[in-house]
């Protein structure tokens, strides 16, 4: 433990995984990764890889020392991982980047997409959810993602190039909203969205059709394409909406990322 303390004092960056007790130390010129148990030596499973994106900091030449503590957390989606930079990410709402083209509006999202094997990027209030492709390995991706996040926050760049591209408050209640729509938005914001965000994603309100009773929602982040998303919709979101809002009736369909529609159950028209 004394050795670890000395490393931290020398300006290493530490990333910590809440579930797997996995730590990553970011030095100025290389990334040091190891797995440890609280009762075993941290020297086991030791891996060193170069990180050319990080500028070399020399304590004898002066300059500003930069440190960053990054935590990771798994999600119900095995292809998605949450990264907590220890700093605010989105001030309001969330932002989803389902492909590299959509990431052009954000320097951070663009930097993450520059890594091979990235399928989706999502910004929450204090976390970044990254979804990998099926053939990609987290062992390779995690150090690269750590480096991209660290470089962004040390660069001083804005999260978005154009502030108008930042996420709008989809659940904001407007004067022309009906009582039913206002109730749906309030329920999503206060009861449903916090639970979904805890899993590294978000659910966005897209509309309500009073004639058919269909609520239009969009799943983002780790929740998009998650194997358990259908269970979440049926047993959680759908039942809650029906319980509190009788206008929501049995007319639910499921939409994929690019508009493909599949029958799921009832009540919701979901856009992924």
In words, what does this structure look like?
This protein is α+β, with helices and mostly antiparallel strands. It folds into 2 domains: 2-165, Ribosomal Protein S8, Chain: A, domain 1 (2-Layer Sandwich); 179-271, Fe-S cluster assembly (FSCA) (GMP Synthetase, Chain A, domain 3), CATH 3.30.300.130. It has 5 helices and 14 strands. It has helices at residues 2-9, 107-113, 138-155, 179-198, 229-244; strands spanning 13-17, 22-26, 30-35, 46-50, 69-74, 80-84, 95-97, 118-123, 128-132, 201-209, 214-221, 253-255, 261-262, 268-271. Strands 4-3-2-1-5-6-9-8-7 form a 9-stranded mixed beta sheet, covered by helices on one side. A 5-stranded mixed beta sheet has the order 10-11-14-12-13. A hairpin with a 5-residue loop joins strand 5 and strand 6 (80-84). The longest helix is centred in the last third of the chain and has 20 residues, at 179-198. The chain is elongated. Mean pLDDT is 70; it is low at 1-65 and 251-267.
The main β sheet shows up as: 9 strands, mixed
Strand percentage, roughly?
25-35%
CATH homolog superfamily of the largest domain: Scaffold protein Nfu/NifU, N-terminal domain
Number of helices: 5
**Structural domains: how many:** 2
Radius of gyration: 21 Å
> Oligomeric status of the shown chains?
single chain
Helix content: 25-40%
DSSP E strands, number: 14
- Highest-level CATH class of the largest domain: Alpha Beta
| Shape label | elongated
How are helices and strands ordered from N to C? HEEEEEEEHEEHHEEHEEE
């Amino acid at each position: 433990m004394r050795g670890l303390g000395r490393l931290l004092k020398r300006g290493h960056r530490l990333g910590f995984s809440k579930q797997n007790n996995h730590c990553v130390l970011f030095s100025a010129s290389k990334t040091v990764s190891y797995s440890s148990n609280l009762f075993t030596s941290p020297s086991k499973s030791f891996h060193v890889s170069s990180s050319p994106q990080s500028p070399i900091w020399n304590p004898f030449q002066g300059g500003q020392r930069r440190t960053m503590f990054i935590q990771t957390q798994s999600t119900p989606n095995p292809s998605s991982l949450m990264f907590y930079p220890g700093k605010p990410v989105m001030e309001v709402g969330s932002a989803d980047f389902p492909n590299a083209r959509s990431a052009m509006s954000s320097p951070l999202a663009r930097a993450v997409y520059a890594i091979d094997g990235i399928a989706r990027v999502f910004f929450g209030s204090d976390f970044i959810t990254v979804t990998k492709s099926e053939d990609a390995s987290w062992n390779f991706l995690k150090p690269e993602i750590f480096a991209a996040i660290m470089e962004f926050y040390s660069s001083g760049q804005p999260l978005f190039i154009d502030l108008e591209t930042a996420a709008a408050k989809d659940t904001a209640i407007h004067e022309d909203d009906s009582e039913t729509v206002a109730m749906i938005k309030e329920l999503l914001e206060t009861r449903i969205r916090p639970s979904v965000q805890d899993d590294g994603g978000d659910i966005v309100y897209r509309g309500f059709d009073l004639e058919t009773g269909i609520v239009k929602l969009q799943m983002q982040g780790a929740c998009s394409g998650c194997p358990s998303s259908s269970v979440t919709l049926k047993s959680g979101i759908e039942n809650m909406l029906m319980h509190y809002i009788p206008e929501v009736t049995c007319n639910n369909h499921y939409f994929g990322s690019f508009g493909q529609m599949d029958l799921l159950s009832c009540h919701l028209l979901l856009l992924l």
